[in-house]
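hey so i finally got around to running the thing on that chain from the lab meeting. sorry it took forever, my laptop kept dying and i had to restart like 3 times. anyway pasting the input first so we r on the same page abt which one it is
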Amino acid sequence: MPPQTTSHETPETDRRVRRWTRAQDRRLAGLLIFVTILSIVVFTVMDVLFKADGLGSRDILMARALAFVVSVGALLVLRQQPRPVVFDWTMTIWLSALLAMQVVVATVRPAGWSPVPVINMLLVLGTYTLLPVPTRFQVVPVAAFSLINGGLILMAGDAGPERVQTALLASYVLANVLGFAISRRHHGLQQRQFLILTAEREARHHLRIALDEVKVLRGIVPICSYCKKIRNDEGLYEAVEEYITRHSEADFSHTLCPTCFGEHYPEEVPSSS
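ok and heres what got predicted. didnt touch it at all, straight out
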């Protein structure tokens, strides 16, 4: 019988799903890392160009260089088609390097530089919604990143009026809660989809086996008008019982009808007197 689908996550189901999505996860991870490398290069060029305006620093350049090296290393690991556990830890280390770079940016950028919180919010939501790893690998680095940035906002007081600081802190909390819920729902739907496809595949397999076992007589059957033997595919005539038994699931149990019984065994027929 095909397995029943369930919405409950189990370690075995998780492993099977990860094997099922392995190639897709690698492609998505490679795309994310490539975009990150490209953005690092672009922002580094911008840092150098705007250094005179106080938007660039040695610390930021070193943080971007570290994130660049880690990103290249992650790409090299992905090319080896790693096992899921290696893939998860590789992406977690890469994410941690990316978030650490953003923490450095947040500590060095001048007060009131608005793109920093916007980029950080996008990183939080993007991690939960796009990074192809289990939620438990997402939540730890993202939560730490949010707490550090929240602490920087409270200590530095550079986000503007108190209501603006409160709004930023609430935004971090909301981004984490919303992202966590989306990530959990996504992985749950992914598992259910896998179980449904597995059940459908097994159902088709059982149906194919059943159809292969069913033998049905079709078309015109050539039968002798006198002896009632049937001509088979080799042109030979064989008894009706043999032909039908070979071409169907039917079998025969011989008996005598009343007419034949009276014709062949008249002495056994009781006399009507």
